[in-house]
Design goal:
Layout (H helix, E strand, L loop, with lengths): L1 H10 L10 E4 L30 H7 L4 E7 L2 E5 L4 E5 L6 E5 L2 E5 L2 E5 L4 E4 L2 E5 L8 E4 L2 E4 L4 E13 L1 E13 L9 E5 L2 E3 L8 E11 L2 E11 L2 E6 L2 E4 L7 E2 L19 E9 L5 E10 L11 E12 L4 E12 L4 E12 L5 E9 L2 H6 L4 H5 L2 E11 L2 E11 L6 E12 L2 E4 L2 E3 L2 E10 L9 E5 L6 E5 L4 E10 L2 E3 L2 E15 L2 E6 L6 E7 L2 E13 L11 E8 L6 E4 L7 E2 L2 E9 L3 E6 L4 E17 L6 H6 L13 E16 L12 E9 L2 E4 H4 L15 E7 L6 E11 L8 E16 L4 H8 L44 E10 L9 E3 L2 H9 L3 H13 L16 E3 L3 E11 L4 E10 L4 E13 L2 E9 L5 E9 L2 E12 L8
Parallel strand pairs: 54-55
Antiparallel strand pairs: 1-2, 2-5, 3-4, 4-7, 5-6, 6-9, 7-8, 8-11, 9-10, 10-12, 11-12, 12-13, 13-14, 13-15, 14-16, 15-16, 16-17, 17-18, 17-19, 20-21, 21-22, 22-23, 23-24, 24-25, 25-26, 26-27, 27-28, 28-29, 29-32, 30-31, 31-36, 32-35, 33-34, 35-37, 36-37, 37-40, 38-39, 40-41, 40-42, 41-44, ...
Helix pairs in contact: 8-9
């Protein structure tokens, strides 16, 4: 009888436990430790079971080791010795409970054991619970029967939990659970009738009604199935199946396709199927997934022939080795036989407390196909960037070595920096009065396969068949820059002595045309074309710092330094000197600077009790004797002595100004919590300007502005009255170089940058309401985006290995938010000499000819990245000057709630120069309690656009209904 009860406790999914207590010997092979039972057991509190207090004898029995504990609780117990049966009955207001270890069965009627028939039954309202397993309880009403010979249990009118990451429930009429004959496998469930849902409301908002269902191992299948929203039938499915195994585990990836991909709704529709593959959970440290993407070639064109893409993604993470990363690979085969291979590798590893390695590598073999086949505007605009760095520490020194590489979608040009080496040291002090802090850096950068216009853009040759002179695009033009810097600051008895050494080298491997000037008169003597240009500069800059004279009031600080007469390097070698070094001279420069802070207080008004105007000027004076610059040095840089002002004596002042307008708020409550709060009304920063009196009085100078030696000037504005607002502007002050008396003072606006962020809780009206004491809602935190969503403004994205559909942004928000970024870049147009038009359309047409799609793609790329499109030029004066057209764009990102359930988002870029939009991302999201509906539209700069409708179950995002419409443009963008 004892053995029978133990089996009943183990195999009935319940276990057994005592009202007094019965201690049963542990079965062979068991490893469970004895359970220390007491008056209170927290694992049973959720069932609200109150056990009687154990007396001294019971506590002694419970403390014995090597036994399993079974407890019984009920109103009446009947034991039939003849038939070997045990009946445990509940009272009118009490339940019968059997608890064995962490398994519990509860009934409001009774639990019955029969050894003759080898059945255990219960009835009434029952609960089968295993609190220690983390699984939900099985509850229901009606008979429950466990059949020992068949190793099966039959339940009626039950609510069965199904764990699939989210908790699901099956409401069944009759279910039978058959345990595996090996006693080690998972049981098999056979279910007849009723429904399944993840909504735990008393009346669920939705349900899947099925006729039959079976769960074998971790696979659950049911059919036929009808989806109900409330009591309305929505869809009929022949079957559904899902993997119920929790956590990471291998399985089939859910393909992504829409209804239109099954039954085409128009003759021109191109079918797309993505993410059809398999996922392997290799072990606890790594996993691998592979999948196929396919776009139909039916009705294809030369621009959109269709493709087949094979993808792979390997993720790894060893916490005990402090290492993690992922490797992605994709191979795209277009149906016109063009191919593209994309590779991504991100890796982070800590070798020790001071040694770290980080990499983010992205590479594609065809930038044209990579961009042409994307529907994601973020991916279409992003450069294909790679970075790798290693940091370590050796003694007092820390060093970093790294590399970068950048490809441009749709263009052949490649920018790379390899290596970058930086070594810094903490202060080395062999004595208290001596301290040395050296540092070293080396950088080499290259521009390969340059596509900028210029004299070396084409290669000319004679056609061997026709004998006609022909030209081809020169794809071998390149440029390289190297730089070495060594700083050795020394402090002796508190006095600083700084020495800086710098070597830079530039080489342009493409032809350029230069005028050759007479060094005295400045007249052009000849014009020469150099197949390549180069320049090697060596400079040494010592600096002596003196103690401040008046730190508290005016912050007066004297300085003495040894500076170059000309702002250029001390030694220089170029193609003009045939590689021979020439040098200029140095001169002592003495200076005195002051940086006081001045205040003025004004009376208050409105919500302000007082206003303060803070002025922080910086004023410095420098003096240097007349210097000498040799003719050889000027020739090496392509300059002339005619009109040259660099060797004059210096007698200059420099002035800069920062202003702050601040206000102290009045108190609006009796607690005094907001007294003394200060708000910044306006901050104005301006670039310092230098004026040289000697240059202004030079005999050859006839302009009153000649004394201004600062070539660029700018200012910036921001205020707390406009949260999230920043504005800055830059001006070029001279047409020509300020070192020449021919420079013309003509301020020209070169750049404007402005950003503005506004939301329901952070906007000018909210700020004004606070100023006047009005209560405003507490700002809500920014919600965390759902897994797999894309955030706007991300940098370069991985080009391979992503196994999520990141086509649309899904930003559930509270209230509304908007951010705008305006930028304008307009370099000063050059005057005279060899001027080359750096027109984006000309550049794109030279690369892509008459292919309008690729030309528009290239134009959109150049319009959105003006700061990276700086032409490579020679350091020697007189070379080609580039006329770069202005670029003006506005980026906007708007999120708002149409209603409590509807969320809208719009992200776009507008090009003011071309008067058209470059890209769009529009999404509408509807929260339907257990479901989420998404309407999305995207238009990429390459002309591709897509429309998507998806309704997905929150409990299982793979359970969804999609409609996708994607189109590759063969002409210009529709916007």
């Amino acid at each position: 009888m004892r053995r029978f009860l133990v089996f009943a406790a183990i195999l009935c999914l319940t276990g057994v436990a005592p009202a007094g207590a019965q201690i049963i010997p542990r079965l062979p092979g068991g490893t469970r430790q004895p359970v220390q039972a007491g008056p209170k057991d927290s694992t049973r509190d959720t069932l609200k079971i109150k056990w009687p207090d154990a007396d001294s004898t019971m506590r002694e029995l419970l403390s014995k080791k090597g036994y399993s504990i079974t407890r019984y609780l009920g109103d009446t117990a009947y034991f039939d010795a003849t038939n070997k049966g045990l009946d445990l009955l509940a009272g009118k207001k009490s339940r019968v409970v059997v608890d064995r270890d962490s398994q519990v069965v509860v009934s409001d009627t009774g639990i019955y054991y029969r050894e003759a028939t080898r059945h255990v039954t219960t009835g009434g309202h029952y609960i089968l619970s295993n609190p220690g397993s983390g699984q939900a309880d099985i509850s229901g009403f009606g008979p429950v029967d466990y059949n020992f010979p068949e190793r099966s249990i039959r339940v009626t009118n039950a609510k069965l939990p199904v764990n699939n990451g989210e908790q699901w429930y099956m409401d069944v009429g009759v279910a039978q659970v058959v345990l595996d004959s090996s006693k080690t496998g998972s049981p098999t469930f056979y279910v007849k009738g009723r429904s399944m849902t993840s909504c735990n409301d008393t009346i669920p908002d939705y349900r899947f009604e099925f006729k039959y269902a079976k769960r074998s191992g971790s696979t659950l299948a049911a059919g036929p199935v009808i989806l109900y929203l409330q009591d309305i039938p929505i869809a009929w499915l022949p079957f559904i199946f899902t993997d119920t195994k929790p956590g990471r585990h291998s399985g089939i990836l859910v393909p992504q396709f829409g209804i239109g991909d099954i039954v085409r709704n128009s003759p021109s529709y191109r079918r797309n199927i993505e993410h059809a593959g398999y996922y392997w959970a290799l072990n606890d440290y790594m996993d691998f997934s592979t999948w196929l993407d396919w776009r139909s070639g039916a009705g294809g064109s030369s621009v959109d022939p269709g493709w087949l893409r094979l993808n792979g993604d390997w993720d790894y993470k060893w916490l005990d080795r402090f290492m993690s990363g992922r490797i992605g690979l994709s191979r795209t085969q277009q149906f016109d036989d063009q191919t593209n291979t994309a590779f991504s590798w991100s890796h982070q590893q800590d070798f020790s407390h001071n040694s770290h390695f980080n990499s983010n590598i992205n590479y594609v073999t065809s930038t044209v196909l990579q961009r042409q086949n994307t529907f994601n505007p973020l991916a279409a605009l992003a450069t294909i960037s790679s970075q790798a760095s290693y940091q370590s520490k050796l003694g007092p020194a820390s060093f970093t070595i790294g590399a970068t590489r950048k490809q441009y979608p749709g263009r052949p040009q490649v920018d790379q920096t390899f290596p970058t080496l930086s070594i810094t040291s903490t202060a080395i002090s062999p004595a208290k009065w001596f301290s040395w802090t050296p540092s070293f850096s080396f950088t080499r950068s290259d521009v390969l396969s340059m596509d900028q216009p210029g004299i070396g853009l084409y290669e000319y040759h004679i056609d061997s068949l026709t004998g006609i002179r022909d030209s081809t695009l020169n794809k071998h033009r390149s440029s390289s820059n190297s730089s070495i810097t060594f700083d050795t600051p020394i402090q002796i008895f508190g006095k600083d002595l700084k020495n800086s050494f710098r070597i830079t080298q530039q080489r342009n491997n493409f032809a350029q045309q230069f005028p050759i000037y007479d060094v005295e008169t400045g007249e052009i003597t000849e014009t020469r074309v150099f197949a390549a240009t180069y320049s090697t500069d060596i400079d040494w800059t010592p600096d002596f710092s003196l103690p401040p004279l008046a730190r508290n009031r005016f912050n007066l600080t004297p300085s003495v330094s040894l500076q170059n007469v000309d702002p250029g390097p001390f030694w220089v070698a170029s193609e003009r000197t045939n590689g021979e070094f020439v040098h200029q001279s140095k001169r002592i420069t003495a200076g005195l600077s002051a940086s006081p802070t001045l205040f003025h207080l004004f009376g208050g008004f409105g919500p302000f009790s007082r206003i303060r105007h803070q002025v922080s000027p910086t004023l410095s004076y420098s003096w240097a004797p007349k210097g000498d610059v040799s003719d050889e040095y000027l020739k090496a840089l392509g300059r002339t002595r005619h009109g040259y002002l660099g060797s004059l004596r210096q007698n200059a002042v420099t002035f800069g100004l920062t202003q702050n307008f601040e206000a102290k708020l009045k108190a609006h409550d009796t607690t005094g919590t907001d007294q003394g709060k200060v708000i910044r009304l306006l901050t104005i920063n301006t670039t310092p300007i230098s004026y040289d009196f000697e240059r202004a009085n030079a005999p050859t100078v006839h302009s009153k502005w000649a004394g201004v030696t600062t070539e660029t000037w700018g200012y910036s504005l921001n205020s707390e009255l406009l949260p999230g607002f920043d504005f800055s502007s830059q001006y070029s002050l001279f047409q020509g170089s300020a070192l020449s008396d021919t420079a013309k003072f003509s301020p020209y606006l070169t750049s404007i940058s402005a950003s503005f962020n506004i939301s329901r809780d952070q906007n000018p009206f909210t700020v004004l309401a606070k100023l006047f004491g009005k209560t405003v809602p507490v700002p809500t935190p920014t919600p965390t985006p759902a897994p797999g969503t894309v955030q706007p403004g991300l940098g370069s994205q991985p080009v391979a290995g992503r196994s999520v559909n990141d086509r649309f942004i899904i930003p559930p928000t509270e209230g509304w938010r908007a951010s705008f970024t305006f930028s304008r870049s307009s370099p000063r147009p050059p005057v005279g000499g060899n001027i080359i038009e750096y027109d984006p359309r000309t550049r794109c047409e030279q690369n892509f000819g008459t292919n309008q799609l690729l030309v528009d793609t290239c134009l959109a790329q150049l319009a959105t990245t003006p700061t990276t499109e700086v032409p490579v030029t020679s350091q020697t004066a007189g070379g080609p000057a580039y006329h770069i057209p202005a670029t003006t764009s506005l980026n906007g990102n708007i999120n708002f709630n149409l209603t409590n359930k509807w969320t809208a988002a719009w992200q776009t870029t507008y090009d003011f120069e071309r008067h058209q939009f470059a890209s769009h991302l529009v999404s509408l999201q509807r929260d339907i309690h257990d479901w989420r509906a998404l309407f999305g539209f995207s238009q990429s700069p390459n002309g591709n656009f897509a429309f998507n409708f998806s309704i997905a179950l929150k409990a299982d995002a793979d359970l969804k209904f999609d409609y996708n419409r994607a189109t590759v443009r063969t002409g210009v963008s529709p916007f």
